[in-house]
Write a structure and sequence with these properties.
Layout: H1 10-47, H2 53-89, H3 92-98, H4 103-145, E1 154-159, E2 165-174, E3 179-188, E4 194-206, E5 209-220, E6 226-228, E7 232-237, H5 243-250, H6 260-269, H7 274-289, H8 293-308, H9 315-342, H10 347-371
Antiparallel strand pairs: 1-2, 2-3, 3-4, 4-5, 5-6, 5-7
Helix pairs in contact: 1-2, 1-4, 2-4, 2-8, 2-9, 4-8, 6-7, 7-9, 7-10, 8-10, 9-10
């Protein structure tokens, strides 16, 4: 049995050519809209925070991949609307159907383009945007703000042999020396009762283990008394995470800026609180579903593009309709995102629900248009 590769016909090339111009127009227009606010941010960074001009421009350029990921589905929506409006307005769709070509075959290249662009967006989201966001954060932290990457106390939890757990809290992290600063370590027994509290100026990672320096510790005895332990110049201990794990989990604290692989690694670390875990699970599923808004927007745009304009294309009407559809879609997506955080056990269902609803709506309207 031989596998037949679909052949690109003259009709396919014609429809894709009709889409390319409006798509590039939409890509440019929406990108400029998003970039306008970031251009204002360059002035704010230079004037208010006295950032070097090169750093502000670098932040702007590294943020462009994230904008493109958001803009591509919108550009496909606008491009499909304008292309179908022109073809319908000049009766080319009617002529094709009169020649025996069904509407589903006419629009098949546009749907295929939506599928391909969905995978392009997925690639950019997973491999390009996280790297670019790391560069943005690095410039903002080291050049502009001169602050630590962490904006909250670091907490690491690890199980203890024989039951119980160990919780380590630090107020800052020195990436150059791979050291935690102002460390508090609490050990609990299997009944969640504290048995040891230790304070150290810093904890340094060397030779695959952590070493606490200048350690003051207090032990809680079974009879309820507390005994102070002699001051120890150093103490080797397993915290439960390596420096790379800590940096990955704490540097951004925003799963929307990470790839699905990074989110999965943080989830597996077991260091997230229940609220954080729900948020990360929701983001993990949404990052798979979100790129496929490309094909969903194409399905919605096709019937609207055929029926909205009969006397010729209208860019202004198409742009307004595209903005309205995008606005409604992302409102629905935001609602299901909140539901996903509240009910993380069904996060995969809630993440795909906007695509399923809008995709089904587009397919129903397209079938009605094909039947006319």
């Amino acid at each position: 049995m031989t596998l037949r590769v679909p052949r690109i016909t003259i009709l396919d090339r014609y429809m894709l050519a009709e889409l390319s111009g409006p798509f590039l127009f939409g890509l440019s227009a929406f990108t400029l809209i998003f970039a306008a606010t970031q251009l204002l941010n360059i002035g704010r960074l230079v004037s208010e925070q006295h950032a070097p001009l090169w750093a502000a421009v670098a932040v702007f350029l590294w943020e462009l991949p994230g904008m493109v990921v958001l803009v591509i589905p919108m550009a496909l929506l606008l491009g499909t609307l304008l292309a179908m409006q022109r073809l319908s307005g000049e009766s080319e769709i009617t002529a094709m159907k009169a020649g025996g070509i069904p509407l589903t075959r006419i629009v098949a290249p546009l749907i295929a383009a939506g599928v391909v662009m969905s995978f392009v967006v997925l690639f950019l989201q997973e491999d390009v945007v996280p790297y670019a966001q790391d560069r943005v954060n690095d410039i903002e932290e080291t050049v502009i703000n001169h602050t630590s990457a962490f904006n909250r106390d670091l907490t690491v939890s690890a199980p203890l042999p024989g039951g119980g757990k160990q919780v380590t809290i630090a107020t800052a992290y020195d990436p150059h020396g791979q050291a935690l600063l102002n460390v508090t370590l609490i050990q609990y027994d299997r009944h969640e009762k504290p048995v040891l509290v230790a304070f150290a100026d810093r904890a340094v990672f060397t030779a695959d283990e952590w070493t606490l320096y200048d350690v003051s510790s207090y032990r809680f005895e079974p009879d309820g008394t507390v005994s102070a332990q002699p001051l120890a110049p150093s103490l080797q201990i397993a915290l439960g995470e390596r420096p790379a794990d800590i940096v990955r989990r704490m540097a951004h604290d925003n799963p929307d800026e990470m790839s699905r692989a990074q989110i999965a690694a943080i989830i597996r670390s077991g260091q997230l609180t229940p609220a954080e875990l729900s948020r990360y699970l929701s983001a993990y599923q949404e990052k798979l579903a979100r790129p496929f808004a490309c094909v969903v927007f194409v399905l919605i745009a096709l019937p609207y593009g055929i029926r909205v304009v009969r006397g010729g294309g209208n860019t202004g009407l198409g742009f307004g309709l595209a903005v309205a559809i995008v606005f409604v879609y992302y409102i629905v997506a935001t609602i299901f995102s909140y539901i996903s955080v509240a009910l993380p056990s069904l996060a995969a269902v809630w993440a795909w629900m906007p695509n399923l609803l809008f995709g089904a709506f587009g397919i129903v309207r397209l079938r009605r248009a094909a039947a006319v």
